[in-house]
Amino acid sequence: MNKTYIVRLTDAERHALVQLTKSGKAAASKSKHAHILLHVDANGPNWSDAHVATALPCHANTVRNVRQRFVEQGLAAALVRTKPVQPSRQCLLDGAKEAHVIALRCGPPPQGQAKWTLQLLADQLVALSIVETISYETVRQTRKKTRSSRTCPSVG
Fold it and tell me: What are the φ and ψ backbone dihedral angles of 131, each rounded to 5 degrees?
């Protein structure tokens, strides 16, 4: 397969990457990306993406993405992981809806129940039409973020 993005490291870049990999002080992902760049360098070993992915336990797409970021954005961008511009999913609970979860939890439990469970909270949010559907796991993560609430008796 033809390589679309050809990595050509300068002597200064190669020296900086070698120092980064030998120091042992960098983050693991940054060090792995440095190793990738050193192996795919057209002026050096010029390994294929599949060969690099096998030698350094990672996916071939990781090698391709690092190579692409280096060519398009430079050395600094190739060494760090990029965060997605948009989250993969839309958040179900914004600030106002999280406040409803906390208010429900701090209130009395439903009739016949000793305390609120995550599933009861999720069912109540759907019953009150605050959200269309929600899993108890989403409620758990929301509660975990607000665990230090001092207004609720026996939060736990």
Answer: -135, 160
φ, ψ of residue 7 to 5 degrees: the values are: -90, 125
As a residue count, the chain comes to: 156
41: three-class secondary structure by DSSP = strand
pLDDT values of the chain reduced to their tens digit, one per residue, 156 residues: 567 899 999 999 999 999 999 998 999 999 999 999 999 999 999 999 999 999 999 999 999 999 999 999 999 999 998 787 887 888 889 989 999 999 999 999 999 999 999 999 999 999 999 999 999 999 998 887 765 455 555 544
* HEC readout, 87-151: CCCCCCCCHHHHHHHHHHHHCCCCCCCCCCCHHHHHHHHHHCCCCCCCCHHHHHHHHHHCCCCCC
pTM of the predicted model as reported, rounded to 2 decimal places: 0.60
d(CA 68, CA 50): 15
Residue 14 is encoded by which pair of tokens? 């190669």
